[in-house]
Amino acid sequence: MYLILLGPTGTQASLTWQSYVSDLAPTASMHTVTGLRPAEAYQFQVSAVNVVGQGEASAPSPVIRLPEQRKCHLSVTAL
To answer: Do residues 38 and 67 touch, judged by C-beta distance below 8 A?
Structure first.
């Protein structure tokens, strides 16, 4: 099984990595991350887990910054 870790970025670099997904199947080749906030930066690591314990984490992913959430205004005119 795999463990996905969510890591600190930028000014949060002194914080520790936190478990994001702890039961990803060993056959999984991708995972959709949900619950992330707009305009925030994220970084991830992956670690294998077996009966012996948790393995060493992968190198951190590149920093991923989500775009700002934009408000949409809609004008409707009756014809």
So the answer is: yes
